[in-house]
Amino acid sequence: MGLAGAGGRMVEGLFCKVRSLGLQGVNGYEVLAECDLSNGLPAFDVVGLPDTAVKEARDRVRSAARNCGFRFPAARITVNLAPADRRKAGTVYDLPMLVGILAAGGQLPPPEEDAAFVGELSLDGSLRPVTGMLPMALAARRAGIRTLYVPADSAAEATLAGDLTVCPVESVEELVAHLRGKRRIGPAEVWRPTAEPEAGLDFADVKGQDQVKRALEIAAAGGHNLAMIGPPGSGKSMLAKRLPSILPALSEREALEATEIHSVMGLTSREKPMVVQRPFRAPHHSISATGMAGGGSPIPKPGEISLAHNGVLFLDELPEFHKDVLESLRQPLEEGKVQISRAAASEVFPSRFMLICAMNPCKCGWYGHPSGRCRCSETEVRKYLGKLSGPLLDRIDLYVEVPALDFEELSRKPKAESSAAIRARVERARQVQAVRFGREGPDCNAHMGPRDLQEHCPLDEACRTVMKGAFERMGLTARSYDRILRVARTIADLDGAEQIGVPHLAEAIQYRESGYFRR
Using an 8 Å Cβ cutoff, are 19 and 30 in contact? Predict the structure, then answer.
């Protein structure tokens, strides 16, 4: 005999449907856990392309139910995770399976149609946090789900999706009391940053290197890629690590995009559910191409370039990275996304980042130094620099040499200009760009397309003469030409100029005239 639930609840006989959510790449989607109890030898089958972690949910659900005082049905249990043509991974389906089985067996009232459940179960019935909570919560909102039951440690992150009633669940007993109407679970408050971001490293600590600080300011103001070349100990890494201190604050959209990726990789927490500062990723040069671009089997996951989305990817000792790792950067640098294709799945991950590189001029690091300490031959120097391909170097906007400091510069006591002062100029330039491009346009000058360049980077006759001379003398490519225009536009924005002038263009050209690379 069928049992009809009130209020449109989905249950019939020993059958119950429970809404849940899944994760594919960095995007969430709705999953329906269909739980059926039928006659036959006791068994517990999970279908719908489950991975090992999903299959192991059978043991977690059975133990959690018994340890919480429920009678686990002695029946043939079949749980189908629909849509059945998508691979299901992770431990997020433990809770909906438990709710569905108990509701199908009459031990729980069936859940409302607009409610969804996500969570991993401990054997004692407590709930553990899950990864990818934000993209799943966003998918729940798109699917019309109104109430979302999640582990308490993941509730703050789920509230970031907005327009959802998020119920933080500590244990199965607490959830059962809530569903039976005995003790309600209060909705979680929407998480907001409670204080200003912690103060980081400051440019005031860096002595000298004014020309490098200027280049980093231009890079920050326009979102440009930059390479620093100099001997060991000249301050390349020190300067790069302070770049986030002068970058503009994340917008809400950028923060949510970055948080989705970090959430999928398990880098968020109950205390810090949202990325509030621009990411700064500095992988070691031994990283693989998969670790850099993303991948894995059977379901690809984001790599370092996606974790650096809306932030900075810093590659120290650039020539020491494997060639395939560096070449994997070429497409993302142009398109702001990376497509990973595997036999089981194909995913597209966002990867709009600033590339900051640091390198020595040779293997020993002292090529060209007045002290004559370099013992590398010209052949060895060319071989070392030859590890970097022309197409990759062509995608870098600014090259700047970082000379070794002398004693006088190091012994000066007055502090240099602070990051706060530099950041104020950067934010003014970014505000100019925001007004120029509008909501539908690029985020910054570095992302301008051909039409934007034509509209916002016109050159007068004097500038055309300068550019023509540089193009012929330096052997520039079409890509280099466009990148010089973007940098010149940023320099003009920092200068408060409406049009690009000869000084702006000349400075932009100067940053492509490294003594080591002339691309």
Answer: yes
Please, which residues have CB within 8 angstroms of residue 258's CB and are 6 or more apart in sequence?
250, 275, 278, 279, 309, 310, 311
Question: What does 155-188 look like in DSSP terms, one character per residue?
Answer: HHHHGGG-S-EEEEE-BHHHHHHHHTTSSPPPPP
Torsion sign (Cα): 267, 272, 277, 280: negative
Q: 453, 464 in Cβ contact below 8 A?
A: no
Give the C-alpha separation, 333 to 518, whole Å.
Answer: 20
Instruction: Indicate whether 11 pLDDT > 90.
Output: no
- Cα 485–Cα 491–Cα 497 angle in degrees, nearest 5: 100
Position 413 scores a pLDDT of 63
User: Is the distance from CB of 351 to CB of 336 less than 8 angstroms?
Assistant: yes
Bridge partners, 148 (sequence order): 116, 166
Distance (Å, whole) CA 226 – CA 477: 18
What confidence score (pLDDT) does residue 195 get? 60
Give yes or no for residue 1 having a pLDDT over 50: no
- The reported pTM is 0.90
Residue 8: what pLDDT?
Answer: 37
**pLDDT at 9 > cutoff 50:** no
